[in-house]
Amino acid sequence: MSTRRQIIVAWAGLCLVGIAATSALNAAPYTDNPVSPVEEPTPTDMYAVDCQEIADEMEQARADAKREQQEALNPSATPRYQATVRDWAVPEECADVLEDRDLR
Fold this sequence. Notes:
Blueprint: H1 3-26, H2 51-73, H3 95-100
């Protein structure tokens, strides 16, 4: 078989593999649950939220930050430059607990 023919056969084989891979990727990922790809997935498991634990973590983080701030203001301490920003995503059902503990 000539080199030119081998190149053509290899190219044709790669094209067929590419077509097969594209077809497999475009196929529906789940056959037992037909869901439109536009729809948002719905959670099937319920999860419990421990609002007290979230509030405890927030209070601990605030206390640590305040302690570090006091240490930084100590004139005998070595100057440290550090900024920490923490963002909390809290479920709405914990709003009352956080408000009661003045963490809003």
